[in-house]
Design brief:
Layout: E1 26-33, H1 36-50, E2 56-61, H2 68-78, E3 93-97, E4 103-108, H3 117-120, H4 123-128, E5 132-136, E6 150-156, E7 162-169, H5 170-176
Parallel strand pairs: 2-5, 2-6, 4-5
Antiparallel strand pairs: 1-7, 3-4, 6-7
Helix pairs in contact: 1-2, 1-5
């Protein structure tokens, strides 16, 4: 017999109103971004899977200069964000209203020295609410973040091509493939 779905609140964690049965359908794929146009095409495909109401946690992993912030900017542009899209390196979080409705929050945890800073900053409420959460350097908030719907591992190759490993829910990974 299959166990009943539980929200994270029922399990004692963050309740985003979603159950996590979809995590059983985890896929993985590899992508190459030889240039920004290839990353743009991936952002467009991912946005189409997220719309009409983006509600997902997306983690971006990779070294400095790998293209994490660039990909977030491309994705937010495709989702209709106009104006300046800032890196949240110093503010830690930059919120955006999405024209089709909903919100996107861009996090950069690079400067976190202790994962508990996540809690101290009040991000529990942000992650509990619906919306798109884009997290750079999620390992710096280890143990505090809810499970990711999609993880992008970006490696910078010697020729400036990006090799991307996408791991997550079937719906999002298939959109990227």
């Amino acid at each position: 017999m299959r166990p009943a779905a539980q929200t994270t609140q029922q399990r004692g964690g963050i309740d985003s109103g979603r159950d996590f049965l979809h995590l059983a359908a985890i896929l993985e794929t590899q992508l190459l971004w030889p240039d920004e146009a290839a990353a743009q095409a991936s952002a467009e495909r991912l946005a189409s899977a997220l719309l009409p109401a983006p509600d997902a946690v997306i983690e971006l992993h990779g070294p400095l200069g790998a293209g994490k912030t660039t990909f977030v900017r491309l994705l937010l542009r495709v989702l209709g964000v106009a104006g300046r899209i800032k890196s949240p390196s110093y503010a830690v979080m930059e919120p955006y209203d999405l024209p089709a409705g909903g919100t996107a929050s861009h996090f950069d945890f690079y400067r976190f020295g202790d994962p508990r800073e996540w809690e101290d900053a009040g991000f529990r409420d942000v992650f509990a609410a619906p919306g798109l959460k884009l997290c750079e350097w999620p390992e710096k908030a280890a143990g505090q973040l809810p499970p990711a719907d999609l993880q992008l591992f970006i490696d910078l190759l010697p020729d400036d091509t990006r090799r991307v490993r996408a791991v997550g829910s079937a719906r999002l990974v298939e959109a990227l493939a």
